Amino acid sequence: MTNYKKSPNPEVKCVVNTCTHWIPGNICGAGNIDILNEEVGKMSTSVEQTMCKTFEERRGLANFIGSADNVNWVGFAEELVGMGRQLNPTVTCIVDTCKYYHKGDLCNIDTIEITGKNAKECQATDCATFEFNGEQSKNEKIQQSREKGEEFK
Question: Which of 14, 76, 81, 97 could be cross-linked to 114 through a Cys-Cys bond (beta carbons 3.0 to 4.6 Å apart)?
């Protein structure tokens, strides 16, 4: 898990079984996931202070249809026909206090894990791969505006 790369598509292991994007086998079927600081205005220093903002609780057909705009349809099709591509979402991470954060909101690692089994809201999910880099945030104001929904859904 420490083989570094600057990629928008690390392998995503997701155990959040209540999410509309969760697929058995702990696979994420989203087209993109957004990893944010859990509390607006407070930079993450621990796993519990991160979250997967893309989480949408699976509560029926309406929720599934509502999240269909963020499904990795190409990945699904390629998996079905056996083209060998892994079904991994792009990852946008704004938690610049993580040692794996890379400029451009990329995750600089091959595999990340999202936890929060039986979660009912995104604040109950965590990026279990987060490791505090021991530094202050360099772009806290930008991140605060994103966390308020000004640039993310």
Answer: 14
Please state the domain extents for the chain: 11-147
What backbone torsions phi and psi does residue 39 show, to the nearest 5 degrees?
A: -110, 125
Q: What is the pLDDT along the chain (153 residues), one digit of tens a residue?
A: 444 445 567 889 999 999 998 988 898 988 899 999 998 778 899 999 999 999 989 876 555 555 555 665 555 555 555 555 567 888 999 999 999 999 889 999 999 999 999 999 999 999 999 999 999 888 776 666 766 666 554
Neighbour-count burial of 17, counting CB atoms closer than 10 A to its CB (0-12 exposed, 13-18 middle, 19+ buried): middle
3-class DSSP assignment, residue 32: strand
Strand 22-23 to strand 11-14: parallel, antiparallel, or no bridges (unpaired)? unpaired
SS3 at position 147: helix
At residue 140, φ and ψ (nearest 5 deg) are -60, -40
Among 16, 18, 21, 24, CA closest to 57: 18
* Residue 104 to residue 96: CA distance in whole angstroms: 10
The answer to whether residues 142 and 41 touch, using CB atoms and an 8 Å cutoff, is no
The residue among 107, 143, 114 whose CA lies nearest residue 47 is 114
